[in-house]
Structure formats: C-alpha cells, structure tokens
C-alpha cells in the first residue's frame, strides 16, 4: 500500500482513466498541458495528433476572461472537427485547477451532446438561408450569477437531504497491480428531475400530436425529419419508423394543380421550408408513397431558438373531400339554376297557349250566344281557370322549394282583401245555399304591413277548400288581434271555419304535406293537386307565422294561422297572377262591347310585335272591338323597322320572339329614336317574376302584361296611355 503515498501518480492515473473527457490548459499562450484518453477518443485521435484539432478551442487567455473569481465556472458549446471527418458537438466546462493562485492551470471537462458525429453541419442552400455557423463558434450557456445560484442550491441539498448521484468506480493499477479504487460521483438530482419533467411534457405533447387530425412533421436545420404524428404518416402512406431521419425531399413530392412536376427546389412547399419564413398554401397536390395524390392545404412555420434558426414545422390537411363538397355544392347550384330556367321556360310555354284559350273564351263570351253555346263557353272558361290554378300551384311550390320566393312589405287594407276573397266565392256559396261571411275585431288596425297578394292566396285556398267540402251551413272568416305568449309581440289571428265533412285526427298530419291526399275517393270527388295547403303552410312560415287545424268528422273544420302585425320580410315580388286573378268572379265586369266605329280611348297608332298567331289574333280582336286596327310584326327586327319608319303610340312587345327578342328590340328603339318620339312599349310575356319586370324597365319598357291576359288589362294600358298623352 506504499504506492498510495505517491499522490501524483494516483491522480495522474485517475485523470487518464476517467470516462469524462478532461484536459488541462496551461498558461503562456498555449492550449493543452495534458489531455486524457476519453477526450482524445471523442475526436478520434491520439494525444500527439490533437494539436492539429485544437484551433477551434479557446486559448488559455480567452478562457480566463470568463473566470473572474476562484469559484467561477465557464460553460460553452462548440462544434469540433473529428479526425475521420465530420463534426461533433461538445459541451465544455472550465474551472480553475488551483483556485486563488495566479497563472494556475485550468481544467476542462468535455462531454458529447447531440447524438454523435454530424456528416454535414451546414444546411442546404448555404449561409444565405440560415444564420452563420462556423467552426469554433462558442456560445455561453450559463453566466456567473446562474452558476452561483445552482451551487447555493446544491449546498442546501447536501444539508441532510437525499440526493441522486451518478458514481463511476475506476481501479487504480500500479505496476500491473490493482492497489485501490477511486470513484467519480456527480450530483444528478436536478438533471433527473429535469429529465422527468421533459419526459412528462413530452408524453403530454405526444398525446396531443397523436390526437390531431391534421398532419404535422418537424424538420431540423438540415431538413431532416425529427418527428411526425400518426395522421401525417397515414396521409403520406409511411410507417412512423421509416420517416424519421428522412430528408424532406424524400418525404414530400408536390406537383402543380394541372399535374406538371416541379423541380425539387422549385416546389412551393420546399421553397417555403428553405426560406426560413412563414408560408401558407391553400391548395397543393401532394403525393403518397403508393403513387396516389391528394389535395392539401399547408402551413410552414420556421422555428427559432434565441434568434437562431433550428428547423421548421409543417402542418398539412387533406382537403380532397372538402373540394368534392364544394364541387357538389356548385353542381347543385347549377342544377338549381337549370331548374329555375326550366320552370321559367315551362311557364312561358304553358301560359302562351293558356292565354289564347282564356282570351278567346273571354271574347267568345262577349258575343251573342244561345243558352247551349254560353254553357259550353262557361265550361271552357272554368276548365282553363282550373288548369291555370294548378299551373300556378306547381310553379309556386317549386319557387318556394328553391328558396326563390320573396315577399312584399307594403301597407294594405285588410278589409279589402277579405271582401275580394268572399266576393270571389259568393256565387259558388250561393249555388250551394251556404252562408259566406267575414268578421274583423274592433282592435284590428285598418291598415297592416305585409304581402297582400300572398295573404289573399292563403285565404283563397282555405276558403276554396271550405266551400268545396261543405254541403250545408256556412263558411266564415274571423280576424282578431292577439299577443303571442312569448315575447309578447302583437299578432293577428285568422280563422277559417266551416260546417263541412270534417277531418279524422289520424289524417290531419297529412294535410300540410306536399302532394298528399286524405283518400282516393275524396280526390276523385273533389279533385286537387294536394299542394294547396302545403303552399299555404310555407307561405305562412315565410311571413313569420304558423298554421294549424282543428277538426272532427261530421263537425266541420277550423283552419287557423297567426301573423305578426308588421312582418319583417324584405321587399320582394308579390308573386305571379293566380287563377283567381285571371278568372273574374263576375264576367259582367268585362261587358259585351260591340266593335266601336270610333276609337274608345282616342286616336292611337298601335303595333303588335308577336310571333304566335293565336296571340296576334287575340290582341287584334280585343283592339278592334275598341276601335283600333293594329299593325303586326312577327319578330323584333320587324318591330324595330316598323317603329323607325312609322309613328306608333303603343307597341305591345312580346319578350321572346325569333330573330330578335323583344328586349333587344326595345333597346334598339330607345337608342335610335329621340325621347319625344319613343312609343309607349308594353311587355307581353308569360314570365311573371319580379326580376322580369326589372329587366323590362331597364330596357325602357313602360308597362308589363303577364300572360294569360284578359280584355281588362288591355283597357288599362289604353287608358294609361290616353291619360299620359292628355297630360
């Protein structure tokens, strides 16, 4: 054991055999006084070869500037060159060997960090893309105050508290004989706690990343994949273990939306990763490992640590299904537009022959007929009116289903609406010996705000059903003011009551369903499309109300609905002319005028621009009976020529004609003639939508007649023109 007295040999042995890289820095401008085997092993060289690898380490003079006090500790990191090529990142710790003595040696402790040798420490693209990274650059990790704080905490822990240590036992061999053992112990309490916290946080972050449905992957400063979540690996068709360490170029393959391949460095996603700035891509075609592609949106976010670029985070999401939904939505919108256009065309095609039937029937009824002929005429008139009613119901229903129905928001007299409804059915009620009355409570205002035409349509439908299904007794309409239970908004309550056949309770839910009939026998007896009440329900709901029924077999029925006193609907169209408007309750309103020798409304020159022979004859006959012989143009081009070559007071212009449409003709006439010579152009069309009227007004068309029209509409136009001329 005499060997133990030679302390210098023992400590020299401990120094050389220590598993921790150690070196002694000597004063006087040099670097190494002594290095141990572990230190040389980190760099892969011998002690003799170390001199050529020491230039990146700070010299003695530079280190002492960071060790102002005897107990100072200087910690830093460096990127060291290895003998076999490549680089290794080291954590360095410098302390005084003999504190308090001038020109004392400095001890260096070194350990490897970062996982081993790095083949290429500099990322692709050079220094232009990332912060400068040069061999031998040092970074101070802990200042003096921080180190002193840690030492004070260590001293407190040693005062009777349990700590965790790491001990390395090394045999002492002298002259090939083990003469003892020395141990190197380190306090790893803080490191253990730190590692535990990191593991806890890492586990929590892993759970979060695994739960995210978007794909996420991280890249280091060299473009290598450091992590990826399961969603990202699944979308790219990779196994998790196959991705880590891959270059982003191996992971991501992007093409343009039209299928053209990008050069590796020209792909927008790759350019964003290398640029070191945030970038968002809304649509990108990415490819999976199996050769299939998907549409994705992505976000690239650069990562910085204390101002130094350390990598990037890429978040991407498969939007293929969303794009398909958008395309389906666009397709549905196109289909809806096609449906609307089809309905408009059908409206035109159906109303045009209906105009001829109803107009000619009206003219026929104004001639001298015997009793049998008049009976036939009335049957034709009733049948055409019923057909027009069905047409209006189908068009209204389609418009409501497509969300195209808009409501007016105008003041109107409620009493006038009720009077017109009862007057319409008074003849039918009298024929069946039914009482038909209406009653308005004293608290109901005379003028209310809403859509009079749609309210009238609902009441007409309900009263029509009541009269149809009642064989004796009476039908009544009651209107009262009431407040809604919540939130106390003033409302009007409408009740249409009859003493008819009644409705079983189990059948009542079918009443407001589209195309539903209570029983085939009832349908055969009373007719109907099964749309009337469904349309009523939808109209009432559009006006902000609700509708219901109370009924029992043999005890009659009560259909009731409520509406706010002032509906909040935006201004809109008041709808197409219904059958009840096209067919007057009393034909005597039209009179039986014989052809007049003199113009009924004063001298006028009239042009009819119409391609349909029946409508031409109908208009000419109506005008002839009022003392006017009208000229005829069969298309828009002929109409323009006629107006330019002659002075006309009124032009009845069909909107849809061959060669040139009525709208185009009206615009040409407006552009070719001075304002004082422009005729009073009246649009004659089967289209009855509000937008059609607006288009006509924009083309300088002054008035609008919707097919099918009756003599009264022509009288209104002639009277309006006469009054305008007289002014």
Automatic annotation (TrEMBL):
PROSITE patterns: HIS_KIN (PS50109), PAC (PS50113), PAS (PS50112), RESPONSE_REGULATORY (PS50110). Keywords: ATP-binding, Kinase, Nucleotide-binding, Phosphoprotein, Transferase, Two-component regulatory system. Its EC number is 2.7.13.3. GO terms for molecular function: ATP binding; phosphorelay sensor kinase activity. One of its GO terms (biological process) is regulation of DNA-templated transcription. Residues 345-567 form the Histidine kinase domain. The modification 4-aspartylphosphate is found at residue 654. Residues 605-722 form the Response regulatory domain. Residues 201-276 form the PAS domain. The keyword Transferase applies. Residues 145-200, 280-331 form the PAC domain. It catalyses: ATP + protein L-histidine = ADP + protein N-phospho-L-histidine. SMART domains: HATPase_c, HisKA, PAC, PAS, REC. The keyword Iron-sulfur does not apply. Residues 567-588 are annotated as: Disordered. In the N-terminal section; belongs to the phytochrome family. At low DSF concentrations, interacts with RpfF. This is Circadian input-output histidine kinase CikA. It comes from Paenibacillus rhizophilus.
